Structures are given as structure tokens and as C-alpha cells.
Task: structure prediction
Amino acid sequence: MRRYYKYYRVNLNDTAVTEIPVNDFKPVSAKPSGTLTLDRDSLLFSDIGQAMEKAKDGAQAYIAQLIERGAEGLPELLQYRMDHYEDLNINLVDANIQKEEIEMLTDPSFAYKPYRISPDYDDPQ
Result:
């Protein structure tokens, strides 16, 4: 049986997948019911692939909502695309999701390290 010592949090309308180690959870005064309850704007996953897929699906649904608003939603849509460019075009593409899933399944000491563009990257264009 494979044990997961980390969870991956996805917030509504956000493309970021946040790693949450188990030891970050604080004890509560009441006994947990067996179901982890979060606020309505976030979800926890024990599988990195599921978390990345949910982040991607949520972003696509949010973009579709902004497009449906027409000209009124255009400024917010453009800002969202700029703010989440790296996740939408690099981190959450199917090939990278599959790569992370394979690494997690084959390496018992798996550590999620999302690709990030270096701040001192000089675009050759």
C-alpha cells in the first residue's frame, strides 16, 4: 500500500498547485469525521496528477466564463492570462502532468518541484 505524506491544494479559479505536507495540519479539538472538509473555494488531492488536472479544468472553466461576458470580461480575461501564463502554457500541459504522475508513482521519495521560469531569463526574441 502506498502512503502519501503530502496533499496538493487547488484553489478555485487559480492555476497554482500548492504542496501541503501532512505535518502542516494542526490538531483540532473535535475528533475528525473521516472526511477532510475545506472551504468551498479549495480542494485537496493526494495525487499530484489529479490536482494538476483540476487546476487546469478550473482555469479553462473560468476563462470560458470570462469569454461569455464578452467585452465586459475582456480586461479581466487578459489580466488572468498574463498572471497565469506560465501555468497555462508550461506547467499544466498534458505532457507535464503525465511526467509528474509517472515520477510520483515510480519514486517513493517524490518531491513536487514545478517548473518555474528564472527571473533572470533573457528572452532571445
Summary: The longest helix spans residues 48-68. The radius of gyration is 17 Å. Confidence is low (pLDDT under 50) at residues 28-35. The first strand starts at residue 6 and ends at 11.
